[in-house]
């Protein structure tokens, strides 16, 4: 037992270092881009011209219907065959952002559809443009509705970063694999990696609860 505890203590700095250097920034950058993709895709599917609606639908269909690890392999190993070369980190960001953006776009689209049609009609009577209506009337209401599913998408993205070891990125999971291979203690190391992910996800869940309470204050008070 003391030996196992020593292994945990000695391995923890390397694992936390990989988490801070790779897993956290990879998650944040990918999700920020995914949010932009999700909003644009949702708006195109709802209000865009027919050709762009078809393109948006095809994008969502492809990325929701194929495994993330396959997408990583296509972007990192496959695209160089047609002259498109990414570094491993960039390939991971591109893939995670596109994958999460596809899922998040459905949440954004559903939140926009949930706003009563009367809101749009009332805005029209005030001579508000569609862009102004979306920005000042619909978006604040949709944000409260879409917050929980978006947070869940972010949590799924964080867990999905554990697959980037497949394209040579040294994230927290890859470091755990390296230590396990050197010390022949896979159960101990993978359990420690799982606990790190569990802490991150738990913190995100707490943050989700705080945000939901803040954006819903006016609903409860009314």
Question: Can you tell me about this structure?
Answer:
Helix 6 packs antiparallel against helix 8. The mean pLDDT is 90. Helix content is 84%, strand content 0%. The N and C termini lie far apart (57 Å). It has helices at 2-47, 50-65, 68-78, 88-113, 117-125, 130-160, 172-183, 186-215, 217-221. The protein is flat and about 75 Å long. The protein has a single domain (2-217), classed as MetI-like (MetI-like fold). The chain is mostly helical. This is Cysteine ABC transporter permease. Belongs to the binding-protein-dependent transport system permease family. It is a multi-pass membrane protein.
Architecture, according to CATH?
Orthogonal Bundle
* CATH-assigned fold name: MetI-like fold
* Secondary-structure element string: HHHHHHHHH
CATH class identity? Mainly Alpha
The largest β sheet comes out as: none
Number of strands: 0
Question: CATH homologous superfamily?
Answer: MetI-like
What integer is the average pLDDT? 90
Number of helices: 9
* Overall tally of structural domains: 1
